[in-house]
Fold:
Amino acid sequence: MRRLLPPVALLLIAFGVLQVASAPPAMAHPLGNFTVNRYSGIEVSGGAVAIRYVLDMAEIPAFQERSAIDTDGDEILSAAERGFWADREARLILSGLGLSVDDRPVDLSLACREMGLRPGQGGLSTLRMEAVYTGRLPAGRVRYVDANDPDRLGWREVTVRAFENASVSDSSVPSTSTSRELLRYPDDLLQSPLDVREATFSFAEGRTSGRPAPEPCGGEAALAEAPTAGGFAALVTWKLTPAVLLFSLLVAFLFGALHALGPGHGKTIMAAYLVGAGARLRHAVSVGIAVSLMHTASVLGLGLIALFASRLFPAEAVYPWLGLLTGAVVLGLGSFLLAGRLRARRAEGGARSDGPHSHPHPHPHPQPSDDAVETGEAAA
Structure:
C-alpha cells in the first residue's frame, strides 16, 4: 500500500478529507435539483385577503437564475441586486395569479417581498423567495388560480385559512400546509409531489371568534443566506498562482487515480480482454490513454451541450434527451463493433479447412496485433 500511496499522496488525501469535513452542512433538494416549487397561502379576514406566496428553486434553476440576479457580473449577489430581482420576480408572479369572487376579478397588489439563498448540493445554493399580495375581498364564491410556470416540474400547493371576522366553507384545499410552506417536504410524497394550482371556497364576513389576521409583512421570513462556497469549491477563492494550479492538478490526478481503481467504465472487461489477447504494457498504456481522453472529451462535450440547451429549454427537459442521445451513441458504436467482429469471424472461418491435416507449418502463428488492441480501445 505504501508503494501505491506515498507520503505526498497521503497528505493530499488528508487535506481533501479536512476540506470536506470542514464544509458547512448542505443538503440536496429533497425533490431533486431541477425542481421549481410554489406555495400559495390564502388568508382571509373581514373584507380582506392576503396571499403569502413562496417560490422555492432547487440548485439547477437557482444557478441558472444567478446571471439574472447578478446584473453587474461581479459574481457577488448584493442586497440591491437581490432586492431588484425579487421585486421584478414578485410582479411577474402576480401577473400569473388569478383571484375572483362570483366570477368578478379581485385586484391584488404587492405588499412586500424578500429572497435569500440556502446551502444546497455540490457547492450550489437553493433560492427561496417570499411575497405577500393583498386586496379587498367581498363575500361570495372565491376561485384562485396560479398559472405560473405550468410546465416546470415541482411541488404545487395551496391552502386557505380564515381569521377574525371571516368564515370559510366548502373549501377544495386544506387550511394547513403539508410541506410547512415548502420548508419540509413529506418523505412519502417525494415521488409523487402535490400538484395543486387552484382553489375554490365560499367566503363570508361576520363577527367571529377567530384569531386576528397576521400583519401582511410581519414576522421573519424563513430565509437563510448560503455561504459563498464550501469544501473544494472554496479553492476557487484562492489567488490562482502557478503553485496553486500545480497543486490543484496534482489533487485532480490523485483523485482520478483513486477513481480508476474503483469499478465502472468497463475497466474489468478491458483488463480481461488485454490479458486474453496477450497484450503488452504499451498496449495497456495506449488503451488507458484512449479511455481517459474519450472519457474527458465526452464529459466536456455533454456538459457544453447541456449548458447551451438548458438556456433554451428547461433543464429537466434537456437531460432525458441527453440520456437518450448517449444511449443511442453507445448502441450504435456497439453495433458497429459487433458487425466488424462477425465479419472477421466469417472471414476466419472461410480461410480454415474443415478436417485435420498433416502438412508442415513453416509459417509463424499470428500474435495479437496493434489493430486488435485498437479495436478494444474503441470499445472502451
User: Anything to note?
Assistant: The first strand starts at residue 36 and ends at 45. Helices lie at 7-22, 59-69, 79-95, 242-261, 267-276, 281-309, 315-351, 370-379. DSSP finds eight helices and ten strands in the chain. Confidence is low (pLDDT under 50) at residues 1-5, 15-25, 226-233.
